[in-house]
Amino acid sequence: MIRTEVLIVGGGPAGAACAWALRRQGVPCLVLERATFPRVKLCAGWITPDALEAIDLDPNAYPHGLTRLERLRVSVGGLRLRLRSRTMAIRRVEFDDFLLKRAGVPVHQHHARSITQRDDGYAVDGEFWGRRLVGAGGTQCPVARTLFADANPRPAGSLIVTQEQEFAYPIGDGERRSMCHLWFFEHGLPGYAWYVPKAGGYVNVGVGGSAAKLKARGDRIQRHWDCVVAELDRLGLVRDFAYAPKGHAYYLRERGRTIRVGNAFVAGDAAGLATMDMGEGIATAIQSGVRVAEGIATGTEVSYEDLRTLSQPAPIGYLLAAAMR
Question: In a designed cystine with 94, which of 6, 16, 64, 191 is the match (CB 3.0 to 4.6 A)?
């Protein structure tokens, strides 16, 4: 059995940030990740300056493509707005691989299934053992499922379902290269849709909404995907493209989440930290991973209560959050 001080399940932004911070504090750790990196990860790829600041990453030093989304075209129930933005966009296939390598800790490709308490620590599948355990495996994280199911019930009203695709497409010149489009509550959608241009000639297109509200209305997320495709064609952003979207689900932020049970912790989507208004999860994943590492290294309690719950300024954020649920 391979033994370490901290066993991290999941090598995405939360797990990689935790590993990076633990190494800086001199705490031995290793990461278990089921996928082979680099791997495709569907995500709009929103990155905020505070997310990069948490891991001391200068955006100018990032070796892969990074698009500065200087302008947002936003439609809220038909009201058209143009907003300035400090947001950046990355491709998760590049970003996650970079963060995990940057962490500089051992990574084992392993699909964690069975988690048991053993020898004053935690054993995973009888092959790995850690005195402390960090669950950073996303919405379906086995640590959260095994150890936090009772402490952190997941309300059906917080579940967001999506359809999304990232693909190579000629973006065009000038403003189009940095112009992100967002549509809130169009065609009765309890959520929002997006078009995000990315470096290297890629775009990410998606739609997400409250699963409970869609079900109550007899509606389906696929119908709203078709509406987005039609709007992209009307605007000339994407035309004559053979789409093949995929779906995934995650939970919006709930206050008062338990993040520690014994010497086990959860971070990122495993803790349900996506912002309540736009479902943004990369910043909170990174910040929560770093906080867990600091708590372990210093022996202090960890809290996520001051992590931001909204992507947009109040009261706009609260309005959007209310409509998302």
Answer: 64
CA distance 109 to 160: 29
Cα–Cα distance, 161 to 191 (Å, whole number): 10
Pairing of strands 79-84, 71-76: antiparallel
Q: What is the CATH number of domain 2-67+88-155+251-313?
A: 3.50.50.60
The closest alpha carbon to 74, from 163, 196, 200, belongs to 196
Q: What is the pLDDT of residue 320?
A: 59
Residue 98's pLDDT is what?
98
Q: What is the C-alpha separation between 322 and 325, in angstroms, rounded?
A: 6
Query: What end-to-end distance do the CA atoms of the chain give, in Å?
Result: 44
Instruction: Please identify every stretch of the chain with a pLDDT value under 50, giving residue numbers as ranges.
Output: 315, 318
Q: What pLDDT, on the 0 to 100 scale, is given for residue 281?
A: 86
**CA-closest candidate to residue 271, choices 157, 92, 124, 149:** 149
Closest to 268 (Cα-Cα) out of 3, 22, 51: 51
pLDDT confidence of residue 9: 98
List all residues 6 or more positions away from 38 whose beta carbon is below 8 Å from its beta carbon. 93, 94, 96, 97
pLDDT for the residue 213: 93
Cα torsion at 141, 109, 93, 75 (round to 10°)?
0
**SS3 (DSSP) at 113:** coil
For 128, other C-beta atoms within 10 Å of its C-beta total 21
* Spatial CA neighbour of 297 closest among 3, 27, 15: 27
Q: What is the pLDDT of residue 85?
A: 80
pLDDT at residue 130, rounded to an integer: 98
